[in-house]
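We treat protein structure as text, and this decision shapes the records that our systems exchange. We quote a single record here, exactly as it is kept in our systems:
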Amino acid sequence: MRFLKQRLSSPILVFGFVAMVTALGATAQSVEEEEHLAIPDPADLSKADALRIYEELLPVLTEGYERARLDFFEGYETWQLYNTAPYVSATHGQRYVNNYANRIARDYGTLAPGEKLPVGSVLAKDSITVMEDGRAFPAAMFLMEKLAEGTSPETADWRYVMVIPDGSLFGDTTGDQPERVVYCHVCHEQVADRDYTFYVPEDYRVTE
């Protein structure tokens, strides 16, 4: 991973790297559409390496997600971050992910059994793919938005949205292609007692 950082120190190579991850983003899109998030051979990174690669890719990530034109997660990268470094999520295709929450969802991660987050809470999980051979590129954004009571009873009033790295909308339980992301809620039913929210793995949690 030091090799990757050194190569990115040149402006010309940065431009080339951005072009590469843009092209690989299209590959990621086809993988997500055809194989439902399956990413083979993820790299085994230290926290420091995972964080460095994520920070290098963050401008590309945010630029891509912005093309979705979904105001409810605009500027998510300035929200509270609940993990100390990106971590591999098996339920998100072995990608390295991060957990952000907006100010309304400030109690995320600390809910007692039966407690719920307020309407307007948004949880944003951006992601990167890092292959075992060292290739790294942007991956999908996974979103949860808490809706008004009774809006979506089949998903416990949570809206699930997945955005592809180029800004294309993969699925939205309240809009286009809802069948593509309905499985999100099926998975989150495992943690129904804490308002269907998974927490950051303990060894990656931010502690005050």
